[in-house]
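STRUCTURE:
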């Protein structure tokens, strides 16, 4: 189990949180870039994080953990492992969030939705719709880092850390105006 301070320390020491001028995969510019894989690539740290995230759900009847690909896959798997439950991931096919590879959600199943970093929650909203369409029930939405912006989904979100970072439309970006070089570390949206 990590407390908040330990978690922030471990994320910083692994370079998972960077300060500068970044182009996010959403197209927005930001002074902060978060890449959770820098920490999740280490299995023992990933497991510690998973145990910390899972703790509030030990007494909740969860049947299956679901995460959006690709960002949420590693964390989703280790959390499912900590809870000893099934894990499935949703991925975009022709622009629509779908279950492929034989994954299924069954009616009345209790589903925990997870992602590594949630900003506005566009992917999570799509996963919420997918779970609702399947007739399964959402028992919670959780993440490692909540970037603190207003969400496009209405359900409560639990997070281990809140990191408020400024993000700007490119035309309005004050970092661009200062001439600070822009880096594009993000992978392209699928
Ligand atoms: Zn900018």
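SEQUENCE:
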């Amino acid at each position: 189990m990590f407390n908040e301070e330990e978690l922030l320390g471990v994320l910083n020491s692994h370079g998972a949180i960077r300060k500068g001028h970044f182009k996010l995969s959403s197209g927005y510019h930001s002074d902060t870039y978060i890449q959770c894989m820098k920490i999740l690539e280490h299995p023992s740290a990933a497991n510690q994080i998973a145990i910390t995230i899972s703790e509030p759900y030990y007494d909740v009847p969860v049947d299956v953990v679901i995460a959006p690909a690709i960002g949420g896959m590693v964390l989703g798997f280790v959390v499912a492992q900590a809870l000893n439950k099934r894990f499935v991931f949703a991925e975009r096919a022709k622009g629509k969030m779908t279950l492929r590879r034989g994954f299924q959600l069954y009616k009345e199943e209790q589903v925990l939705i997870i992602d590594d970093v949630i900003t506005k929650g566009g992917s999570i909203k799509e996963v919420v719709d997918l779970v609702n369409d399947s007739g399964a029930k959402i028992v919670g939405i959780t993440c490692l880092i909540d970037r603190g912006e207003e969400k496009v989904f209405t359900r409560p979100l639990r997070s281990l850390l809140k990191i408020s970072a400024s993000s700007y439309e490119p035309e309005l970006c004050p970092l661009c105006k200062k001439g600070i070089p822009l880096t594009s570390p993000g992978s392209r949206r699928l």
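REMARK: The chain has one domain: 4-177.
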